[in-house]
Amino acid sequence: MAKEYNFQEIEKKWHEQWTKWHTYEVSEDSARKKFYVLNMFPYPSGAGLHVGHPLGYIASDIYARYKRLSGFNVLNPMGYDSYGLPAEQYAIQTGQHPEKTTYANIDRYREQLDKIGFCFDWSREVRTCDPGYYKWTQWAFQKMFGSYFCTAAGKAQLIEQLIAHFEEKGTEGLTAACGEELAFSAEEWKAMDEKEKSQTLMNYRIAFLGETMVNWCPKLGTVLANDEVIDGVSERGGYPVEQKKMRQWCLRVSAYAQRLLDGLQTIEWSDSIKETQKNWIGRSEGAEVQIKVADSDVDFTIFTTRADTMFGVTFFVLAPESELVAKLTTAEQKEEVDKYLAYVKSRTERERMIDHTVTGVFSGAYGINPITGDKCPIYIAEYVLSGYGTGAIMAVPAHDSRDYAFARHFNLPIIPLVEGADVSEESYDAKEGTVMNSPMEGKTSFKGFSLNGLSVKEAIAATKKFVSENGLGRVKVNFRLRDAIFSRQRYWGEPFPVYYKQGIPCMIPEECLPVELPQVENFLPTESGEPPLGNAQLWAWDEANRKIVDKALIDEKTVFPIELFTMPGFAGSSAYYLRYMDPKNGEALVSENNAQYWQNVDLYVGGSEHATGHLIYSRFWNKFLFDLGISSKEEPFQKLINQGMIQGRSNFVYRIKDTNTFVSLGLKDQYDTTPIHVDVNIVKNDVLDTDAFKAWRPEYETAEFILEDGKYICGWAVEKMSKSMFNVVNPDMIVEKYGADTLRLYEMFLGPVEQSKPWDTNGIDGCHRFLKKFWALYWDKEGQFTANDSEPTAENLKSLHKLIKKVSADIESFSYNTSISAFMVATTELGQQKCCSRAILEQMAVLIAPFCPHIAEELWEALGKTTSVCDAQWPELNEDYLVEDKVKMPIQFNGKVRFTMEFPADASKESMIEAAMNAPEAAKFLKGMQVVKQIVVPGRIINLVVKPE
RNA sequence: GCCCAGAUGGUGGAAUUGGUAGACACGAGGGACUUAAAAUCCCUUGACCAUUGCGGUCGUACGGGUUCGAGUCCCGUUCCGGGCACCA
Length: 949
What we know:
This protein is of the alpha+beta class. The protein is built from 29 helices and 36 strands. The strands form ten sheets. Strands 10, 11, 12, 13, 14, 15 and 16 form a seven-stranded mixed sheet that branches. A hairpin with a 4-residue loop joins β25 and β26. α21 packs across α22 (740-749). The structure holds one RNA strand.
């Protein structure tokens, strides 16, 4: 029988056993309550896992195992997000085909993951680049193409219903989310040819082909979604991004903006991530007002959230990209306007973001304020964005800082509208105060409308009401959330199941899916944006024979070109949680039975960096599938835990300038030194292994050291874990040296799951020592198994049940670090008690199983069990064992602890106060004093407030 | 600029939500065992004063406040992290 805690042997044994027993494979079992735990599946990047990656997986694994022990049927799947830019960029950098590198990376990931002892059901693995998987990505896209969003019903409906509406009434009474407001009659609809009809419907489809401004990244050779662009450069690679008008597939995410916002109230996510999504969705309620252009029959619409300030409008501003610019510009101003437009066009997105200097030009035209009747000049300026609202604003310099800066620059009038607001130096933007000058004294306004004397908030409401009642405009809600650009000019992604018949996009029939990614010789992207799929020879659709054929056969009558774009990275990751419920189903994305059983994800664990990407798209995608009746819950992820990042802890050596001599940290200030990153793997407790350092790199072979106390002490700093900082710690190495159970324990012991923290291998010894101590509860020094049938003592039971109480509560609240502390305390206690009771030791093994499954199995087996510890029962808490018969209470006088006393647990407040006052220690505090207040918090404190008599 | 979340020993972090701050662990110092090392075990470890004994004072970023009592609640300030940002 084993004596030493031989983790290597134990972990190998149980990994094999679990595979043999299919321990972690689950099936739908309507007799048992389900619980769905999910990790954000990884991109299999080339660098492999570092010690930070498994953090979230370990946290969710503990929860999954705990839930399983508590009697739930737990689904805990894993897979790979293997399509998209990261995988492809890696392939390009290493000069290999993305398919090859992706599969190699997946194997490497799997190997690493397997060492850590997760309870993943690998029989349900999905890979987004697998045709059997992306068939359903393509299928969902086609469903979106075949749907529109009905604003009256608040949900997606079949496009056929919209067509029927057009046939009958044209756009009259239409309630559909759309790109632009169109108006046509039934006759006009019927008179359209196929192409015009197709184009018209694109304005309503949820997946649509649109001519829009996109983020074009020439270096990556593709367009990017808004969340893939950060500070004007690409998230991946940091390459410049420019605005370009292109024909692209888009998803009408904006139609779901309100539902995406409302849904946040129904889910258990952190406030910060909800806040981030709220900001990203950016709802703002305001009014759209029609503005007539003087001496012309043109009019335009502005959007404002400050309807109350209409009396302070002194000019209007159009976005340079607005179609109105050409219509309004007068002949005299044309030259100047053109010059300005050319200037704006020359500026990159990044320049526009950083540089906020005031620029603009007068169009020559005047707009008429519908309430005051005043004629105000119309300007064109880049500070107004074409993509938001209507691309036109009314400017109120007194109460908007941007308008203020513009007015000052162009010497335009500023009319204050709030009593007491000083606008001589800056605008008054706050929505507070009493309204004045609305209208100004002696002036009249439309229908005698006046806001004077109201508070700003009342004035906003009153103006909205007035504007809509008098047909001057309407109340309107705007969202910052834009439609998602859904196509990429890259190779490594899902192909679109679309072909072009005389230029009209048509769907490849559902039965013919998936449309598999064709092999191409050259998959590199091009700066001009020619998609790599253009290099595919077998890439044409034979409509009659319903198959993919050589594109040489294209004849525009029966054989048509297939779409060359591919889908973006978020396509495959948007509904993968549904596929795990039924991963091998060839007939449906997920069967009704399985969707009903598993419902939605109960616990989702992943990084907060996906807040405005994946977590928005997924919610949108799921809502769409919910409208179709596929998904059984409106929100995909009920509870979300964002694990923090594990940062690296870098070490430094200090080289004296122009030498090869290195000086220890404490002495470095005496020299002129340069800090140099040193590999953390040759440093222990900040002490450098100098021999290893000499061997590390050739240039250090002759290195000399100035030591302190015979040691070379390194400096340290917390930085991102990355190869270039030499602070990457590989989990494989930790598993080899300490075992997976120690790794799991230590990752959780490091601190709260949701917090970012630096990795420091040094502390790991403490966790490893604990496991050895835990082991020693079962095996004594002579290698004898200690458990026997002796009755547990009251002390034993108390230690155990204290632990049950703490661990159960801590797992539920993801406070794993404190429950590990509790394990350490309980183990020490039981060790001191020399506890040999089988009843206690069995429960201890079950309690540790979620954290350290391997050692738990080994001990469970040693206890004579023949089934896996995973199938045991979570111990039940019996509070009776925790009841104290005596309580120690600190006695305070005037809020300060003076001494402590012991009382029977059931002592009354009065008797305790009396005893405290009669205690000999109390005498000096009571001398010449009288008690004015007595406070007793049972089990906590007794406080007597005294005052001189 | 707006919004959100933080700040506790040399280090990672606890504190039952207003009740003895610093659990647990690392590191450090001292000791035991050993020829020696490793491993293991024991003691000390927030600061300062007193250590001839119990002990005392100050301490949770800073400044105020509420309270018998504040790391925890309120007001103000500083610093770090995250989100949004010419969004009308």
